[in-house]
Amino acid sequence: MAIDRRGFLFGAPFLLAGCATARRPAPAEAALPLASAPAHAASYEAIYAALDGEPHPVPAVDLSRIDPRFLRREVAYATREEPGTIVVDVEARYAYLVREGGRALRYGVGVGREEGFNFRGAATIARKAEWPRWTPTPDMIRREPERYGKYAGGLPGGPGNPLGPRALYLYRGGRDTLYRLHGTVEPWTIGTMVSSGCIRLLNQDIIDLYRRVPAGTRAVVLASSAATG
C-alpha cells in the first residue's frame, strides 16, 4: 500500500494552516482562445460542473471562490521538455501538460506551504489510481499522533479523502518519492501554498489530466527562485 506525503489537508476538522505568501508574476504566456480555454463564465461552469459516472460524488466547483487565473486553459508555453511531459511551476502555482507547437494545457495548483516541503526535479508517473487510498506517513503520525494516529491503517477513497478522485504518483529511480499530483477536498486552496509538498488540483482538473497521461509520463517540478537563491 503506498503511503502518501505528510500533511495533506483533510477537510475542515483537520485543516492545516496555509501560508499567505508573496507570489512572483505568472510566466509570460499568451492565452489561446481555444475550446480548452473558454473565454466566458458559462464555458467554465460547464467544465467545472458536477461529474456523473463516478463511484463517489464530484461536486461542481464554486467558481466564485477560485481566482480565474487558476482555471484550466490552453496557453502558449516555451519549454525544452517534450510534448506529453508534465511541468509543475511551484512558484507560479501552475502545472503544465506540454503539447505540440509550443502550447500547453495549464492547470492551477496548490503547493507546499513551506519551500522545504516541495519536491524538486524530474520524476516519473509510475502509478495512477482512481479514488486512491490515503495513509499518513510515519512522520505525520509521530508529529501529530492525536490527529493522524487513527488513520495509520489508511483511509479508503471516497468523499472526504484528501486525495480526491485521482492521484498520479511520482517515482524517481524506481522508488516512490511519496509525492503525488492529486485532487482536493478544499478547492478554494488552489493557487496557494497549503500542503506539505504534494501538488493538488481541482477535482475536475486532476480527472482531466489523469485521462491524458499514461503511466511512465515524465514529470518535472521546477525549483523556485527561493530554493535556488
From TrEMBL:
GO terms for molecular function: glycosyltransferase activity; peptidoglycan L,D-transpeptidase activity. The keyword Cell wall biogenesis/degradation applies. It comes from the Bacteria. Residues 84-222 form the L,D-TPase catalytic domain. The active site is at residues 182, 198. Pathway: Cell wall biogenesis; peptidoglycan biosynthesis. Keywords: Cell shape, Cell wall biogenesis/degradation, Glycosyltransferase, Hydrolase, Peptidoglycan synthesis, Transferase. GO terms for biological process: cell wall organization; peptidoglycan-protein cross-linking; regulation of cell shape. The keyword Cell wall biogenesis/degradation applies. CDD domains: YkuD_like. GO terms for cellular component: extracellular region. Belongs to the YkuD family. This is L,D-TPase catalytic domain-containing protein. It comes from Starkeya nomas. The lineage of its organism: Bacteria, Pseudomonadati, Pseudomonadota, Alphaproteobacteria, Hyphomicrobiales.
